[in-house]
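Write out structure tokens for Bifunctional protein FolD.
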Amino acid sequence: TAQIIDGKALSKTLREGFKTRVAQLGAQGVQPGLAVILVGDNPASRVYVGNKVKACEEVGVRSFHVGLAADTPEAEVLATIARLNADPAVHGILIQLPLPAHIDPRRVLEAISVNKDVDGFHLYNVGGLVVGNTIFPPCTPYGVQLLLDTTGTDVTGKNVVVVGASNIVGKPMALMLLQREATVTICHAKTRDLAQHTILADILIVAAGKPGLIVPQMVKQGAIVIDVGINRLRDGPNAGKIVGDVDFDGVKEKASWITPVPGGVGPMTVTMLIENTLRSAERALRMRQADDYQDWEAPVIHP
Ligand code: NAD
């Protein structure tokens, strides 16, 4: 039976380390700051934003919570971002998705300074992933990479199958592993015969949002299985329970390592958001000390 990859424990260790970095920045007169913009009052988004703010405070990162009404015009959201881009107390800017329908998410994401794009969703950072030189890796795949590292596995040449091809998880995950010279297959909802691909995976990463999608027959003996899915069961005997995309009880008998849900990838996402915010603050300080403001200024990117 598989060993458990404990994301909660790794998060805790990393967050302890963050306190030291916050203190080091503090000694140089910098308190790292993260601005979180929430447009509207989607209840799930509110919970996510609350978790991010709380996690920041626990390690000494200052949080700026900007709540905007659901009918805020796009121009006003862009003006808010421009203000935060110019604010030296803010090292990271995050806009909670999804946005109300009248706001173009791409336009908003592209307005964030690439130097403060701690979610890594700006085209500049996305492009950086393609060429293996991103400033801020997106948080969820970044967290998965650290979880994989804890197993001591070298991914070079391994068969990695990523199930899910979203812009925030599947695609960047695949690019990060390709950069590490894994042999990467990306599967998605249109993939024919999913099992034919997953059965070859030395490392199987699942981010589809479909409970029970991955059953033991689809998993190679000894595979490492990372379950990114977070699903709340609607009905059945376990209604209300949070589960991943993998049949955990079945698959753990075949895998060598497996992440639980909850307590696997989930806690790592917020941890990596803080990592990126600290890195941004350290980077800004370095640039300032090198008197290299010019370099630090955001490249101008035309839409
Ligand atoms: P998404 O809906 O944007 O993308 C889902 C992807 O899975 C798509 O590419 C789709 O083609 C594919 N897919 C759907 N059904 C499939 C099937 N039957 N077979 C193969 N592929 C299929 O979702 P997302 O934002 O990438 O999130 C995926 C899951 O991960 C969700 O459960 C989400 O809640 C969870 N998630 C968790 C974290 C975390 O912190 N742990 C972060 C982000 C997302």
